[in-house]
Structures are given as C-alpha cells and as structure tokens.
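Example record

One chain of 423 residues, shown exactly as stored in the release files.
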Amino acid sequence: MNPDEIKRQMMLLWKKTFHDTDEYVNLIFDNYYSLDRIEYHEIDGKIVSALMEVPYNFGWKNHQLIGMYLCGLMTDQQYRRHGIMQMLLERTVEKVKKAGYAFCFLIPANKGLVKYYSVNGYSNAFYRVVNRYTELHDFRHEYNTFVMNNNERTGELKMKFYDSLWFEKIILSDNNISNNVIDFIYDKENNSEFIVMRHSRKDIELFLRENYLSNNSSYIVKDKEDKITAVAVTENDDNVTSVLHIYAADLCSKMRILDGIRLDGDGRALLLYEYPEASHRTALWSRSYVAGSDTSLVSLVTQTSERVYNVAAHANPYGMVQFVDISAVLSLLADWKREMKINLLVREVRDNVGCYFQIDRGKCVDRSVSGIEFERLEKDSSVLTLTAYQLQEILCRRPDADRLIMEAFGLPRLGLDMCLLLD
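Predicted structure tokens for this chain:
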C-alpha cells in the first residue's frame, strides 16, 4: 500500500470511528501524520486498525523527558475483539523504546478502556482535580473575601487590580492567533515548578485552532498595559462549561477569568480541572458543603465536628502511562525530589536478571545485574525489589495514597501533568 493510500484510509477510519468534521481531520493529519509515527494493520488491502503517535516533552527546570502520546486508537467495528489493537500497542512500545523515549501515554475514552489498557501494561498516571461551580457562583466575591481576610489594606489594592483587568474571548475565525497568547502559555509551562507537559509554540497554536474547530472556546485576561495575565481553554456543552486548563500569572487573574467564563456561559455551570500538585483548594465536609481557594477562607465557618480536607487528594484519573525507559524516569524523579534516598532492584521477566538503581542527593546511578549478584541484592533488606509494572504502579499512584505508600516504600509519587492534547 502506497503512502498516500495509507493516509487516505486512516483518515476515513478516523472519521468513521470518531465522527469528526473534515476540517478537523484535515488539521490533525496535515500537522501530525507521519509514516514513521503511525501503526496500522490491513486485511485484504483495507486498513482495519490504526493509531497515531505524537511526541511531547515533559520537564522540570532543566531536566526533561520525552513521552510518546498515542491518539486516534481505532479499529473497524467488524474486526474488534480479535487482538489487533493489542498487537499494534506492542509494536508501538518496542518502536518507542528503540527510539529512546521514556514512556508511552494515552487517554482512555471510558472505564472499559481503562481496564483494557491496564491489561496491556498501562497504569493510571495523570490525575485531575474536578472543581464544580454553579452558574450563580460569584468568583469576585470569593476573591474579595479571601484577600480582605488576609490583609484589609492590601486587599483593597488587589480588588482595584481585579476590577482593572480586561476579559475577552479569543476569536480564531480569521485564522490569526496572537503570538502573545502562545508566548504566555509557552513561558508558563517552561517555568513551572512541577513536572508538566511542555508544548512547542506550534503545538499550542494547533491546539487552540483544534479547540475552535470543535466549537469550544479560549479566553484571555489583560491588565491596563495590555499585557496578558491569564489564558483559559474550555469545552462547552448544553449544561456545563468545562475549563480544561488555566494559565495565570496570579490568583487575581485566575479568579477574574473564571468569572468572565461564567458570565459568558449563558447560565451554564462550571467544571474547573486542575493539576493535583498545583491545587490548593480546600473543602469542608459537614451537613452542607463549602469550598474555598484557601484554608483560611474555609476555617471561618468550620466547627469542631467538621473536617477540612485538601480537594487535590480526591483527584480523578485522566490518562495512563507505560514506562519504556525506567532509568530516565527515575533520574527525573531523583532530580525533582532531591531528598529521596533509596536502593532499588527492578526485576525483569527472566529469572535472576534486573537493573539495580542507587538514588541519592538528586542523582540516579544504575547497572544491569544477574545471577549471583542479583540473588545477593534480592536478599538485602536495604534494597527494595519490584517488577517494572509494580514500580510503575507505585510511582503513578493516586494522590490520596501518597503518604501511606511513601512510608511503606520510600518512593515519592511521580506527579505528571498533561493538558492541551488531542482528546
């Protein structure tokens, strides 16, 4: 099958599977399609199953990993439950490993697929906090209460700044995206204190365009000097506006853009998705439910019989990962959590063969071990022995399991964050 025919048939299968518009499918294939970044299976000259691969950088300060995002996983309905996609996933992992990537990752469309991908070596790894707000929620009042309770003098100044901020919707119908918007998102990602996905400027532009073609919206907030202080990306349906991500210079700009989105939503409720490590929101369990952006706000109404908890601990799984280069993953984790000190033996499928990792003071040193040396390390009580999948499950655990597993194994959670993807 020639390259043009492969592309044509993949586009047809994509449209048949996901029911996207011609304009959307053309945008994806014109910018992401490449013969060396697809896997497909054909029967009698017809492509019956395929997937696309898109590389993305993840980083923290000067340390970064490259992961391969698997999207558009599709099989013609007539050929499902024949093990074809499982074969494509196995081929992809081997190819990605040889190419030097750290991991593969994907976003399951439903709970049934979570189970399917788990059987094929993937673990829940990306989590999102879901903050729910009614259409009547007053973000300006919430922010005013917060700043006034902290410091009344500075609170008045902050409210003046809040009221000076200008909110507007990004219009892409003219195919013109401001470089200032792209640069703002790019700079926020590359200066994050967390392990986040780092989009290229082209990726950011393409996602904003793709979001527009899907009848969704993007917004910005500017200060008096016309400088962008916040960008938000949303998905819209009949009843709810989902805020997929907010890039904000400060809390004031974040609350201002949320209030603008609420007012633009024509009476729709809001769902705000946030990265667990970056979420400082607290909530109060009692007969009634109260939520706030800071513990001090919730404490104003807390009684002794009530309990304040961190909403981030109750994050929901969003994406899944499969490590293909454990050494690269552990090196990033060691640099991020420099207080970590552990000796780790990762067992391979074969008996008495594995890799020994020594992590201390931000450094990770590893070497292959086998035979007598493997047996000696396995019996050493100071060495933690795990399979590769067990290690993956522990590092990618839920945020609410962090403290217990940290005490048991001494391994911190690998808090990966991703957003602005083909989903």
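Notes: The CA atoms of residues 168 and 212 lie 15 Å apart.
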